[in-house]
Amino acid sequence: MTIERPKADVVICGLGWAGSVMAEELTRAGLNVTAIERGAWRDTSTDFPPAVDPDELRWTTRRELLQPMSVETTTFRNRMDQTAAPVRNWSAYQFGWNVGGAGTHWAGMSWRFTPWDFEVATQTRERYGAAKAEGLQLQDWGVTYAEMEPYYDRFERIAGTSGIAGNINGEIKPGGNPFEGPRAREYPTPPLKDTFWMREFREASERMGYHPFTLPAGNISQAYVNPLGVTMGPCTYCGFCDFHGCGNFSKSSPQACILPALMRRPNFTLLTETEVLHAVKHDDGKTAKGVKFITKEGEEGFQPADIVIITAYQMDNVRLMLLSGIGEQYDPATGKGTVGRNYTYQTCGTVNAFFSDKYTNPFIGGGALAVQIDDFNGDNFDHGNLDFIGGAGIMGYSTNGRPIQNMNNLRPGSKRWGSAWKEAYTRDYNQGAGIFIQGTSMPVRDAYLDLDPDYRDRHGQPLLRLTFDWNRNDQNMLRYLTDRSVEIMREAGGEDMIVENQAEESWNPYKQHSSHTIGGAVMGADPTTSALNPFLQSWDVHNVFVVGASAFPNNGGYNPTVTVGALAVRAAQAIHQTYVNNPGPLVKG
Amino acid sequence: MKRRDLLRSFGAAMTTSALVSPAAAAELKGFPEQTAMSADHLPRPAMKGGGFQVFTQENDRKILAAVFDRLIPSDKFGPSASEAGCLEFLDDQLAGRYGEGRALYLEGPVRPENEEAIMGSPQFTQTPRQRYEDGLKALEAYAKATDGVAFHALSPGRIDEILSGLEEGKIELPNGVKGKWFFELMLQNAREGYLADPLYGGNRDMAGWKMIGFPGARYDYRPYIERQGENLKLEPVSLIPKD
């Protein structure tokens, strides 16, 4: 039997950050919204209270909050002449598997992108000439930082973000990030406190003439009531943040910030443990009429709606567009088609070291607890004599001291077993400290997504296939940034350094550190190079909106979440302020 | 709700008058009022005193103890793996969802060589439980072939030699078991058992945490964050009372 559901104004596919933000805006505007989420309902007190959450084995090691590969995985290859293989085991990917999505288990690093990130094509050409971008597939986002500012502000208010402003309306503020785009006002809550290592990193980078600041964090520093009337509590620096839920209501998440208000709205309905298979178009192909779904019990159904919003995380956003025939598959050989184009990642490295006779107390941690310099991020420094564009944030972090995760963080040459390991771990656990280099990722022609010809998910639908390897620009960037980071670690007095430049070897998902998968359904002002217009509306099927980091045409040297949230607010407002009054393309193609 | 009327422009036949609500899919309206813990998120402590569920053969337990106690021997830093309960830990893990490989993608086509070339290391379509079953058999066969004795009867020095050979990829095990990767699996699991919450049967008396100075399942370091660089001497706590 096929389930036929009552029609909704809007159906939302996936209720993570993007879906929750959209649903909140749209229901507040009076629209009747149904959200469909394949994971289960999860909430703070029923699923990750303090008596359950600080359990490394279950949540970090076994990853029980994450979507298992048996539900759906991706396939991967470095080059087009290879046969892709499925990712069978846990890897760098951290897809959400519950109401709240990846917004439940994320670390909370709460960045805005720089103005440059949104206009990388134009600004690179104007500052350095067109030759600088040779080999890269650069394109602007079709929206500027200045246009994004109010939406960033809105999302930060919902999330309660902790931080210290570096630029308020053009005025540089002491202690903040002087390179950030102008903000309208200070962060909702003050910055978190420094650990031992954060203070050492801060002082070392200051001595070198850099501009350290406390990371903007979704682990909030004090109690806060957000604009939806939801109360959050202060972060306790417990160190069980990323991969875990938060038992204190202090990590910005759909659970802590949006769902308590959203779920009480009579015009909101949520279907849990129900998976959207694909959207269904009208016969003329110009609009979608709803989505086909399947319940946990295997019953198929149809949810009719006037507007279809896909908010299923970057990879699944692209996959759902392809499975639904919305837009044309990108072909790297011809450059035609837009869905799957401009896949990017996050170019990362680490510098670890040890402090003899000190106690770094790594267990005092937070997912976003760190000090960073942006002196070498984006285009904050002159690339005139450098062989790359872009850069990275360099952070001294105190995210966790979880003992299984850190059991190989030992001085160089240490053994991983026997009494020698026990001695090394006893010595090094409390003396270790790390720098994380989180860099930009630039699009190239042959890094893309499409449907795999061989491998299928549990419902028989094709898996998404990724073709990707590091490109020369990003490798050159990371080499330069790694050298800068080593200098800082040396100045800070770290001994026995271990340097890892991830871009030195071929990319594969088991080797990487970042879960940030980006692009594939990108926004832009030109329908020949973007799947979505600047309001994240499909150029091809105007009542379909696709919201997530899939929309970024290039990746900044930052975590994606706050930019996803800001784009979601902007898209939702365009829908209820403009689109519903006159359904059709919001931008002329 | 007037806006809804504005949205009726997409054609007529989208809705049906038969508004059947789904029988099985969980439809939520309003904030769920349930306050009890979700059954599948309740703590899952290892069974105590129930005997072994997976390693039911004594010889398997002897091989495992022989390996684990060289990976984590008893010394001045703390008890050995088996003394800390790592065998019971592994047995419990393999009896459940981890051992069954419930999270893994196990569909074909299986192309081991291509998968290893693409991913830089082999992928397995056997569950962890199957890998132990095959791996322990292979270790026993190897000891009998090279030394003429049962694996557990080997001297500690000889076991170290074999483990090093496996780790470095210099020793091949029989029956197609990838020795280097079986070593990695055992090393990972032994140390998990030593460092996970005692809830799961290992890390007895929080010995692993005491060894390195990890305070365990504490949830509030606000009183300590400003005591930078100091030895805080915090006693560890576990998710279950001391056993």
The outline of chain A comes out as globular
CATH topology of chain A: FAD/NAD(P)-binding domain
Low-confidence stretches of chain A: none
CATH superfamily of chain A: FAD/NAD(P)-binding domain
Count of domains of chain A: 1
State the end-to-end distance of chain B: 59 Å
Structural class of chain B: mainly alpha
Average pLDDT of chain A, rounded to a whole number, is 97
| Spans where pLDDT lies below 50 across 5 or more residues of chain B | 1-24
Q: How is the quaternary structure best described?
A: heterodimer
Query: Strand-residue fraction of chain A?
Result: 15-25%
**Strand-pairing-aware structural class of chain A:** alpha/beta
Domain Glucose-methanol-choline oxidoreductase C-terminal (chain A): 446-568
InterPro entries (chain A): FAD/NAD-bd_sf (IPR036188), GMC_OxRdtase_N (IPR000172), GMC_OxRtase_C (IPR007867)
GO molecular function, one term (chain A): flavin adenine dinucleotide binding
Organism (chain A): Neorhizobium alkalisoli
Detailed description of the structure:
The complex is a heterodimer of chains A (589) and B (243). By secondary structure, chain A is an alpha/beta fold. Chain A has a single domain (3-73, 91-581), classed as FAD/NAD(P)-binding domain. Chain A has 14 helices and 24 strands. Chain A has helices at 17-28, 44-47, 56-61, 102-105, 115-118, 120-128, 145-159, 196-207, 254-257, 259-262, 314-324, 418-428, 472-492, 561-577, and strands spanning 3-4, 8-13, 33-36, 74-77, 85-86, 167-168, 171-172, 213-214, 224-225, 231-232, 268-272, 274-281, 288-295, 300-310, 341-344, 347-354, 370-373, 392-397, 432-439, 448-456, 462-467, 495-501, 518-520, 544-546. In chain A, a hairpin with a 2-residue loop joins strand 6 (167-168) and strand 7 (171-172). The two termini of chain A are 41 Å apart. In chain A, 65% of the residues are buried. Chain B is mostly helical and 243 residues long. Chain B has a domain at 58-104 and 112-212. Helices cover 38% and strands 1% of the residues of chain B. Chain B is globular. In chain B, 38% of the residues are buried. Residues 1-24 of chain B have low confidence and may be disordered. The interface between A and B is large, with 120 and 98 residues. Chain B: Pfam families: Gluconate_2-dh3 (PF13618). Chain B: It comes from Neorhizobium alkalisoli.
